[in-house]
Amino acid sequence: MDVLRFFDRRPRELELYQAFAAKVLAARPDTHIRVLKSQITLENRHGFAFVSLPRRKVGEPSVVVSIGLPYRISSPRIWMAVEPYPNRWTHHLLLSDETQLDAELMGWITEAAAFAAAK
After folding, report:
1. So where are the chain's domains?
2. Which residue numbers delimit the DUF5655 domain (predicted)?
3. Which of 32, 60, 64, 84 has the most CB atoms around its CB within 10 Å?
């Protein structure tokens, strides 16, 4: 599957993904992108960021960005956080505007990439 098919008939979500992927690739040029049926995986040795479409209606066009870290982020930007394994937190953020692609988010992405590479 390719990115255009993943975002079929969702042009705004495609724009959000493209802006996100461009920022990640600029910061981490060693990133590989894999498009699957239900998510897009950004990976180094292992996946460190995942983009998917919200499973329920959230009001405005959005994508879900998921990252894994060894600790829980305490921020109102985190839509949901779960600890599937001890000291492995998965955080889900709802991205609906390019202004959300800021230094804070990119810092978390950098940490998630380092955490994934160390596995």
Report:
1. 3-117
2. 14-112
3. 64
